[in-house]
Design brief:
Layout: H1 2-25, E1 44-51, E2 56-58, E3 63-69, E4 74-80, H2 81-89, E5 99-109, E6 112-116, E7 123-126, E8 131-132, E9 146-159, E10 163-170, E11 173-180, E12 197-207, E13 210-221, E14 242-255, E15 258-264, E16 270-276, H3 277-280, E17 294-304, E18 307-311, E19 318-322
Parallel strand pairs: 4-6, 8-9, 11-13, 16-18
Antiparallel strand pairs: 1-3, 1-5, 2-3, 3-4, 5-6, 5-7, 9-10, 9-12, 10-11, 12-13, 14-15, 14-17, 15-16, 17-18, 17-19
Amino acid sequence: MRLLKVLTVLLATGSVIALVLASRATPRPLTAIAAVQPVMNFGYVRVEGVVTAYPTFSREDKFLSFRVWDGTGELRITAYRAVVERLLAEQRIPMPGDRVGVEGTLRIRDDEPALILNAAEGLSIETPPATPVDLAALETMALGERIRTTGQVRRVRNVGRALRVISIRNGDATGDVLISSGLPVPVALPAPVAGQWIEVTGAVGEYRGARQVLSSQVSAIEAPAAHLHAIAELNSSLVGRWISVEGAVSDLRPFSRGMRVDVTDGSGATITAVMFDSVWQALPFSTTLSVDDRIQVHGELGEYRGRVELLPRLAADVRLTGSP
């Protein structure tokens, strides 16, 4: 009788184990995020989508959280302790732009759903290739799409201790590149300098209605050749555009906040480049620049008293190209 009871317990235990293994091996039907309802609390589901933001990560607390968008809605995914340790050991931390499949337990509190990743095996990650795009096309790209683009660093600022924002420009187009240092593998980049050109690979994100690049890789590149405009063709219809000219200095006129430099190109046409002190005093050749020196100037075209003028914003926007 005792042997029979032991065999019965072993058989029951084996049946439960077999059932669990079979349930894990059986692919679960895909759940649309928009279909998640409060009645599904504690349900075990599978979702697929794209990671739309940098993950929140704490090595000390063994905590990981990231957001997934599937085209119908967005869902927060969280993982704890042993699962996080396993993902770290396998170097499988989702990054913006990654396409992921996640299986786990739904937790719905205050009508806000989240999915608990119960096991590392419940997460699959695919990193799509990045599409090369012009910076001007950034606003047309889908959220989470992986792209590669280039631009000139215009401004660098830190937001808190873990996030750096680099504003870049390429012609008339501008955009922000985000670099997170709070990840297991931070994005490597030499100290960015205003005027430096960079190539950025990452996913399209959004902040206050404006697209931005959530970078996974940033590298310095050579500055591309500028498209030079003929000065004679510049007029008020181009005000606000980013313009590049090259010519000889024909006059220098100081004013209370900087220097006005007249530039004349081969056609004989002249435009005034207004260099405020923040630009003029930062030029390494400001004390030696003289008439007939050749310079290249990049800046925004403005208008003052009926005449167009060029407004460089950084010292890097003015380059000495030759002396008589």
